[in-house]
Every structure is written in structure tokens, then in C-alpha cells.
Fold this sequence. Notes:
Distance between the termini: 41 Å
Order of helices and strands: EHEHEHEEHHHHHH
Number of strands: 5
Amino acid sequence: MRTVLYARVSTRDQTAAHQLTQAEGAGFKVDEVVTDDGVSGVTTRLAERPQGRRLFDMLRAGDTLLVRWVDRLGRDYQDVSDTIREFMRRGIVVRTVINGMVFDGSTKDPMQQAVRDALIGFMAALSQAQAEAMKEARRAGIAHAKAQPDAERKFRGRKPSYTREQFEIAQRRMMEGAGLSEVARETNLSRAALWRIKKDPEACSAALAAWNM
């Protein structure tokens, strides 16, 4: 039995090494890392990603599939929930680094099964809602940056103190209800920066767009 970390790297700021460090920091012993580089999680199903397909071939009953968050496992609600259920059907345990979620198909207790299945649906729906919210913030930010007069567009203001990845992680974690102190530790951002992101994500996204970040 082994633990395989699946890391989807879709932006220039993300790295598989960073996701591995997070997993090990959370106490996981990772035997192998499988990485999809440059693949959009919003448009591409897990089974259609080169290394995503490999997971279905390499994992065996008793293995653990570790992901940073359930959004790594699909492009939308249906894909995420179908993927988790398929791995469970094969006897593979799915775990998340964030919040330590465990999806195990071996339980036979009907109450535990009901709670697990409800949690799968909720987490998959939350993942899609977060993805939609972040896409909208990015679209609004880019549109705002493009709508500025040439003089204002040339004056980009102060360069953001956060990367696109930090912005999206912070936005996602705050949507999940995590406190500023917790998110600050996870993203290495100041509470002031996080407060700006929470208060006006569209303006923060616009600043990233203005600086081509």
C-alpha cells in the first residue's frame, strides 16, 4: 500500500514541490508524486489529463490518493463526485491535505455511508462554486484593468504583494471560512493583504492583471 500525491500545476506560480511540502508539513508520508503541468482544472476532466489517466492505471486497492483539495480531482461538481466514487469503488482511499478529509469506500455502516456520500456531494459542489467565484473575480479584474483610460492603464500603481496563486488560495480558503491568521500561515501573506483580498477581490484581481501576474 502506498500514498500517491496528485499535483495539478496550472499557473506559473504553482509548483509540485510546494504541494509536496504542504503535504509533508501536514504529516503525510508520500511515496510518489504524479504531476499534471499546465493543465486547466476548470476545462479538463481528470480522466482526460495525461497524468490523471495514469492514476486510474497505477493505483490499486489499499492505496491512498492524496490531493491538496478536492478541486484537483475534476473540473466541476459532476466530475469531482464521479471521480471520488470511482476511486472508492476500486478500494482506493482519497484524502485531502487541507482539512484532512477522508473518503473511504470500505465502510459498511449505513449511517457512515450516508454521511460520507453527503460530504462528497457538498465538497464537490463547494469546489465548483469556488472555481466559479474565482473565474468571475479574474474576469472582472481583467475587464476593469482594460477599461481604464490609457494614462491610468500605464500607471499601474504599486505591484501586488501576492502572486496569482496566493490570491486564489487565499480567496478559496476564506470562502471556506478559514480565519485570517490561518490563511496567513498557509499563504505567507500579511493580514493586511488578506483583508484587501477579502474586502475587494475584483480590485485585487485587476491589480494582478495590470501587472500581468
